[in-house]
Amino acid sequence: MTSVEIGSELAVSLTLNGATTSVRVDPRRSLADVIREDCGLTGTHLGCEHGVCGACTVLVDGAPARSCLMLAVQADGVEIITIEGLAEGDEFSPVQQGMVDAMSFQCAFCAPGFLMSTVALLAENPNPSTEEIRAELSGNLCRCTGYQSIVDGVERAVEIMQRGAQ
Length: 166
Fold this sequence. Notes:
The chain has a five-stranded mixed beta sheet, with helices on both faces. It is built from five helices and five strands; from the N terminus they run ββαβββαααα. The chain has 166 residues and is α+β, with helices and mostly antiparallel strands.
C-alpha cells in the first residue's frame, strides 16, 4: 500500500464520456465531486451523498455505480459515462427519448440516476418485464412521481430500441 501525505494530490487518468481525461485530485474527494467541479459535468446530481438516492449514478466500465461513494482515485484507468455522454450530438439516446415521450419526470433532479441505471439494465436485458424494470430501478429514489411514469419511460425506450434494430 502506498502512503500519501495529507493534502497531496494524485494524478487520475480516466475515460470520461469517450474522452481521455486527466485530473489531479485530493485522494479523499469523491468521483461525483471531481466530475462536477473539476470536469464541469453537472448532470451528475448529488442528493443524499450516502449512496441511498441514486441521483449520482454513473456507469463505471458499463456498470452502474454511486459516484458519491466512489473515490476519484478509484476511477484511475476506468471508463466513466455520465448523463452528458448519452446523447449523440443533438439527438437523444433511446432511453432519454423514452423518458421524454412518457413525461417520466417532474423536477428531474433524480433523472440522471434513473437514466444511467436504465442504460445499464437495457445493456444486459434489452427486453425486461415490468417487474424487472421495477426491481432494477428500486435503488433510485424520486420525490415527485409515483414511479409509474418512469417505468413507462423505460418501456417506451425498449420500443424505440426495438424499432431501431429492425
